[in-house]
From TrEMBL:
GO terms for cellular component: plasma membrane. Residues 267-379, 723-829 form the ABC3 transporter permease C-terminal domain. Keywords: Cell membrane, Membrane, Transmembrane, Transmembrane helix. It comes from Ruegeria faecimaris. It is a multi-pass membrane protein. The chain crosses the membrane at residues 21-41, 263-287, 308-341, 361-378, 404-422, 428-450, 769-796, 802-827. This is Putative ABC transport system permease protein. InterPro entries: ABC3_permease_C, Membrane_comp_ABC_pdt. It is found in: Cell membrane.
Length: 842
């Protein structure tokens, strides 16, 4: 028979409607919709960043220098290339105000600007006024504007005075909107905006102070940004300059969105995997009902290929409907929620129907439907003309013919490859795929074990008829216990893993803080201030430890004479400037693992010690030549030792340490960490800030609170993605309960016939649901803990502790969900009349 005949038979079969395929469609549509929605939001943000790149950046292009201003040659190049230039200085400081003779201090991210700022966009102030008027100030004091959060923290009002360093400012307005704020990335403190010329007498921009300068360029219309970037790199070679332009005005946010989206897409794939179980179960149940039809077709001369093609066409059409519904839903939801999403985004987004993410989601849906329906469809070949009984499919062999196994392998490889390509992270994709495969294997083994255990414990439960009936039903392969454990268990596993990872990260940052983390980081300490700084702390019994080191910042530009990025790729150490220190001896908190430290009186060619783990990741080895640009000067040093640096304690640690003579003459400041009792922290800050107003203190607990807030947002986003998996699992559970309703009607009829009342039958159904839910929850908990441990250990490289509240919640969720679904579909069976049911089954 031909494919045309199979098409005609499939069309006739579909005339019966979608009965039995509602869960199939819902699972497929929901998984595709989740991936399509994430992709649509990602494209909306990326489009907004592209269209508004210049406004976000504050110019068509930006040149950034580390802890220095541009020199005459660099300014000359910028003047030749641009129509206008705006200079911005960015650094951290302490804002201090007097409230009833009691100084109040708060960390602030200061942006000082010139009269050309902003080249693009307009700041919004409250009360409304031009920025230039706000900078004029009052009564001889220069003006400043602050973020509302900082104003509230310092309890200031418009017209009040505060100090930055030794310079007094008057607060003129609240900074409601900062046009180029998104380009500045994550800051440890709220923003304060002032003029650079008003900082001349503040003592905050002394040699060695940690600051960066950014020069925004207004370029002639039609300028070739690619060519200009290359020209700037060549003309300013060796200056340590970093180029950014309007093509990606907020690179940090763009990269963050891309990575988060990739992770959420993989979580969405987990949801599709859960839905795939439901798809497979629905197809299997549908084909089981079609056994007689298939046998009849074989009797009439239909060969294996025709039967397979008939039902493949049906499932293909239904899959297309489910994928189409998912695309429409996933593309529409972001549009409907656009006003709400835009208010929560720090960057512009342009919401629309974007073909690319919808096509990606459709591809995932097609591959998932293919993977999870191929084996059930292959079983149609097991039905012969003489096999006119309902259980033919259930008695078929587990593995189909080799060609179907091979096709499944190809489809799985295509799905993983597509996920790796679209997510941009092959490693994360492989981790996710391996985790899902492992979870499915564990859940399958658990489902088989539950059935065997239920069969083994049936006899001991004779004294409790409802429990015995429940165990007997669970042990029956036709009851669908495996489908319940697989679908609900996988959904709960994803949610459990997300909960464990979120809790582990929070514990790694804030857990046991007083014992392992310093109270304060102090930066911008001048060399001549170190004796007085140390004296104040050493005489305080509440201070348990002080660590200090010289602090410079450098950019690794070359490795063995080649551009660093070509040698080490996009490693995070190369993404910006990194801390550099010097010392005669290895620091007390770092252990040399390879090579040798230089001698105390060494004064030869520069040598550098590198963090061992990062060196291994970057492919560095002893003897390599590293070129580091520090304050516009290239220093090429030989890598002579590797050392173990523990960054997890929030203490002091440097990627690079050089011999002192290599950095002789370079202006720099010192950094210090102070470990003290919490009740003494306020007095320490008051004394040191009062004596050294240029010093910036970063309270570790405040920094952790800001990072924890960011993590809370990430946890919410991932929890929503995991929630889709759980919802899909719930739909599969409902489908399994609905499919098992005829069997429960027959079971209830038999039990009523032998004298069981409704209460006992209902208790039996409830016990069955609770046992299956508990099993799914416990297995999901094991999988989630294992997944959380793997991610914490191998990806985040941190310690792992089980988050028991989340763990217990997962088990309870499994019980409640299965109990609810089981009881809903137990009402009709309880109401049946035994005679009618048993007569119909004769």
């Amino acid at each position: 028979m031909s494919l045309r005949m199979a098409g005609r038979l499939a069309r006739r079969e579909l005339r019966g409607g979608l009965r039995g395929f509602r869960v199939f469609l819902a699972c497929l549509a929901l998984g595709v919709a989740a991936i399509a929605a994430v992709g649509s939001v990602r494209h909306a943000i990326q489009t907004g960043l592209t269209q508004e790149g210049a406004a976000l950046l504050g110019g068509d292009a930006q040149l950034e220098f580390t802890y220095r201003f541009a020199d005459e040659a660099e300014r000359a190049w910028m003047n030749d290339a641009a129509l206008a230039i705006s200079e911005v200085v960015d650094f951290r400081s302490m804002a201090v105000t007097q409230q009833n003779s009691d100084p109040q201090r708060a960390l602030t991210q200061v942006k000082s600007v010139d009269d050309s700022y902003p080249l693009l966009g307009k700041p919004i102030l409250e009360p409304q006024m031009p920025l230039r008027d706000a900078f004029t100030g009052q009564q001889g004091a220069p003006g400043a504007v602050m973020a509302p959060a900082l104003i509230d923290r310092l309890q200031l009002s418009v017209g009040d005075r505060f100090s930055l360093g030794t310079q007094e400012f008057v607060l003129m307005a609240a900074l409601i909107h900062e046009p180029d704020g998104a380009a500045d990335g994550f800051g440890l403190g709220p923003r304060t905006l002032i003029r650079t010329q008003d900082l001349l007498n503040s003592g905050l921009l002394a040699p060695g102070t940690l600051f960066s300068t950014k020069y925004r360029l207004d370029l002639p219309p039609g300028s070739d940004l690619t060519a200009l970037s290359a020209q700037a790199s060549e003309a300013l070679k060796g200056s340590g300059m970093r180029w950014t332009d309007a093509r990606n005005g907020a690179p940090g946010i763009s990269e963050f969105v891309a990575r988060l989206s990739a992770f959420l897409v993989l979580v969405g794939l987990s949801g599709l995997a859960v839905g795939g179980i439901g798809v497979s179960a629905a197809v299997r149940a549908y084909l089981a009902q079609k056994t007689e039809t298939i046998a009849t077709l074989r009797t009439l001369g239909a060969d294996r290929a025709t039967v397979f093609q008939t039902y493949l066409i049906q499932i293909g059409i239904l899959s297309g409907i489910g994928i189409f519904l998912g695309i429409i839903l996933g593309g529409s939801v972001p549009l409907l929620l656009a006003p709400l999403i835009e208010t929560r985004l720090p960057v512009p987004a342009v919401f629309s129907f974007y073909p690319q993410p919808l096509a990606e989601a459709a591809l995932y849906g097609v591959l998932t439907a293919f993977l999870f329906t191929l084996w059930p469809l292959a079983r149609t070949e097991e039905v012969r003309a003489a096999t006119l009984f309902r259980d033919a499919l259930s008695s078929a062999r587990f593995l189909p013919r080799a060609k179907y196994v091979l096709a499944t392998g190809i489809g799985l490889a295509a799905l993983i490859s597509a996920a790796a390509f679209f997510s941009g992270s092959a490693r994360l994709t492989l981790w996710t795929s391996g985790g899902l495969a492992g979870a499915l294997v564990l859940l399958s083994v658990a489902a088989l074990a539950i059935r065997k255990l239920a069969r083994f414990t049936t006899k001991p439960a004779r004294g409790n008829p409802p429990l015995r009936w429940a165990l007997s039903a669970i042990s029956d392969p036709r009851e669908g216990a495996a489908s319940v454990v697989l679908s609900l268990g996988l959904g709960l596993s994803v949610l459990a893993a997300v909960g464990q990872i979120d809790g582990t990260l929070r514990n790694a940052i804030s857990g046991n803080l007083p014992d392992v983390a310093p109270s304060y980081f102090f930066v911008d300490i001048q060399k001549e201030q170190m004796p007085g700084f140390t004296e104040r702390l050493e005489n305080d019994p509440a201070v348990s430890r002080i660590q200090s080191a010289p602090m410079l910042r450098g950019i690794i530009t070359q490795i063995n004479g080649q551009p660093a990025i070509e040698v080490a790729g996009d490693h995070w150490v190369l993404e910006g400037d990194r801390g550099v220190t010097y010392s005669d001896a290895p620091p007390s908190n770092a252990r040399v693992t390879a090579g040798e430290w230089w001698s105390e009186d060494y004064s030869g060619t520069p040598q550098v010690s590198f963090a061992a783990e990062e060196a291994e990741e970057m492919g560095l080895k002893l003897g390599d030549q590293l070129t580091v640009n520090i304050l516009g000067r290239d220093i090429t040093a030989e890598l002579t030792s590797l050392r173990e640096v523990d960054f997890s304690t929030a203490g002091m640690g440097f990627i690079m340490s050089m011999n002192p003579s290599a950095l002789a003459g370079a202006p720099h400041s010192f950094i210090a960490t102070v470990y003290a009792e919490e009740q003494a922290e306020a007095a320490i800050l008051r004394d040191l800030a009062g004596k050294f107003p240029n010093i910036t203190a970063i309270r570790v607990r405040d920094a952790i609170d800001r990072v924890s807030g960011l993590l809370a947002g990430l946890a919410a986003a991932t929890s929503y993605g995991a929630g889709v998996s759980l919802l899909t699992g719930f739909l599969v559970l409902i489908g399994a309960a609905a499919a098992g309703e005829p069997a429960r009607r027959y079971e209830a009829a038999v039990l009523k016939t032998i004298g069981a009342d409704r209460r006992r039958i209902l208790i039996s159904f409830a016990l069955r649901a609770v046992l299956l839910g508990s099993a799914a929850g416990i297995v999901a908990l094991m999988v989630g803990i294992l997944g959380g441990w793997a991610v914490a250990t191998y990806i985040f490289d941190t310690s792992f502790d089980v988050i028991w509240p989340s763990a217990i919640g997962i088990v309870l969720a499994g019980i409640i969900v299965t109990l609810g679904a089981g009881l809903i579909f137990a009402l009709k069976p309880l109401a049946v009349r035994p005679a009618r049911i048993l007569r119909a089954s004769d």
